[in-house]
């Protein structure tokens, strides 16, 4: 079992060292998503879904930034593997020519559907994130000037999109929302994918040609799911995992369809669900049913209990009641970048996509 860990350690650290001083493999990296990759976009918004306070960021070089983890997110690790010497800045604070290397639009509690997560307050849904991207493109056009082709530039960038978790956690499985009364799990997956398809095509129409789409993880196994819905004798909340598997199956078909319809672009699928179904104890994890930090009402770390967080974060799968620890983000990003098993990515991995 230690062999697995050292293989990952090798994979991860050699990549960081290889590219730290070189040019990035792509000129720019744009990130769309939810709290799994938000790095500060919610900090100034009226919402319960913001975490710019300790103990969040306890293992991040500049402390709490709004990242929903103890340290780096998968987007941060991917930026490192791609050879960027910095993490991609949030849309809310990215200034000047910084945006030429990419922008992070992700917003905690956001979903594919506009109404998702609204009970927590204001956020930027995927539609809003795409609108912000359009504003970024106008700024890039002005910076590059008329002699450089903006579309020629944008098509060389990498784009990652990870949405859908909140459309289940903070919509379908909460009685406050009407989705569950309106749709069976099967039909809900279909309407979500229909809307997601339009959104990804919009991203394509804005010039994206290298697109990474993350599937939804095993949301039925989070400490929050277990305390809210009950495990009923299983290890996880099965109804949540079943619903998400339907979504992921449809999403993989959508990726096939997008590749078939757009021969000048490449779309890939990251099987986050399968990766997270790994035998966690064989990765050295010792705790997977509770998070590392004591949490408050919304499942986020309690700011008044900083001194009571777990000591060894690499033994915990979860940081708070929803979000993985930095080490889990590291493993997911490493496998998305360079597939470790055949099922990790489809039809290819990010290291290959970047080279195209
Ligand atoms: C999303 O919903 C909010 C609140 O209902 C509304 O103000 C906004 O215009 C909607 N956005 C889109 C893109 O539909
Ligand atoms: C843009 O290209 C034109 C034609 O080649 C040239 O005359 C002009 O100086 C260029 N402008 C800039 C800002 O490079
Ligand atoms: C998971 O890994 C642990 C440690 O390597 C091992 O003892 C256990 O049998 C494994 N469980 C399964 C279901 O493979
Ligand atoms: C933390 O936990 C990991 C996994 O069990 C272990 O390999 C490592 O030695 C621990 N580190 C410390 C400082 O205890």
TrEMBL record:
N-terminal signal peptide: 1-22
Any one Gene Ontology BP term: lipid catabolic process
Cellular component terms per the entry's GO annotation: extracellular region
GO molecular function: hydrolase activity, acting on ester bonds
Chief site of localization: secreted
Top-level division of the source organism's lineage: Eukaryota
Protein name per its UniProtKB record: Uncharacterized protein
